[in-house]
Structure formats: structure tokens, C-alpha cells
Amino acid sequence: MKKRVALITGSTSGIGLGIAKAFAKKGYKIVFNGLEKEGPEIAAEVAKKYNIEYFFSNANMLNPEDLRNLIQQVISHFGSIDVLINNAGIQHVSPIDSFPEDKWNEIININLNAVFHLTKAVWPHMKTNRFGRIINIASVHGLFASEYKSAYVAAKHGVIGFTKTIALEGANSNISCNAICPGYVKTPLVKMQISDQAKSHKLSEKDVINLILLQKQAVKEFVPIEIIAEMALFLASDNAATITGVALPIDGGWSAQ
Prior knowledge:
The chain is an alpha/beta fold.
């Protein structure tokens, strides 16, 4: 396989970083993206470990112009974008009657609108190359709802609908589009939720994990980031060419209920 280029948003922490490491290990050229202050160092460390070419961008998912510029910068730098992994996301938990409007807008813009802007920007390039793999990291909350997560659930449901539409539009150009729908993964964002809920419910963090977070999962364990990364690698491969428009749960049996 020629060394393909994978652009992974939100790839300097959490699920995105795990995916970036897996793709780097397979020899992909990686476009890292993140807003962490130490982002450039994280990207450089992964690139050095796996001896790959890389590009780092702190493009803000809230700014469509940043996203359009990012696509052009990467194509100018590497000559190609073969895989787009829309992973960046944020969360806020609140009842609807007190849900902050600025948080609603921010979640929709980062978790859904950025997926649209990046896909639209890379689309002509992938059509010309007659190859593209677009992988959206959605969530089991793109398939089911939970209380107090109205913006996140709405955004992730939107991502899955968008995924299906793009799969249909790309089918004749060898562009696939799929969504991975993880259950709970122990990312920095989830660790913050555990701490916050422990305080608000006056529970231990262990009880928050077992009684609240993993309550709907049949397998009472966090989903390993490595499994999500391996699935992304498969969906990006030539062998997955006829898999498109799928919303694939990796959720410890949550969706089996």
C-alpha cells in the first residue's frame, strides 16, 4: 500500500490520539489536529516513535474557514487526503430547562457542523482521486438517547444521518462513509463526567461508573480505544470498499437491548 494520508480531528487526546497511533503504526502519514497547548509535542512524539511523516494543525472546529484552509494546507503539503476521520467532539450535561444556549450551539457546531464543512471541503479532491474513506466517530448516543444530553444526542443522530447521505453520494466514486458508535470510553472527557457526577450524586466514582455510566451496557467495562482504532483501520482499507453507510455500535451490548 502506498503511504496514504489520514486527517484525524481531535487527535491529540482521547479516542483521536488512539486512532492516530494505530494509523501511524501502519505507516500512514498523519494530520494531527487539536487545541491542547502541548498538541505539537504530542504529534511530534507519535511521529518519531513510528517514523512517519506528519502535519499538525490547531484548526478550530468552530471556524468553517479554518477547516477549509486545513484541507487546502494538507493537500498542498502531502498532495493528498485519503482518509478523513471526524472525531473532534465536546459534551455538556444539563436538563433542557437550564441547558445553556451557547453550549447547545458549540456542541452542534463542533460535533455536527464541522463534519459537514470538512467533508464538503475534501469531497472534490476525493472524487478526482476516485478514492476516499470518511469515518465519523459518532456515539451510541447517535442511536439512542439519554437524559440531559439533548445537544450531544441531537448532534450525533445528525452525524449518522449525514453519514448515510454521504455514503450514497460517494458510492460511484469509491468514497465510503461510515460511522463508529462507541459506548463509554474512558477518555479525559468521560473522566471529568465521572468526577462531576460523583460530586453531584454524592456517590463514589466506582458507583458512578457501575450504576450510571455503564448501567445500559451489558458488558460492564469501558470500550477500549484500541478496538475503535482497529475498526477505523479496517474501514479505511481497500477490503472495506463495499461497507458504506453503516452506523457500527461498539458499545458493550447497549444496542442489543
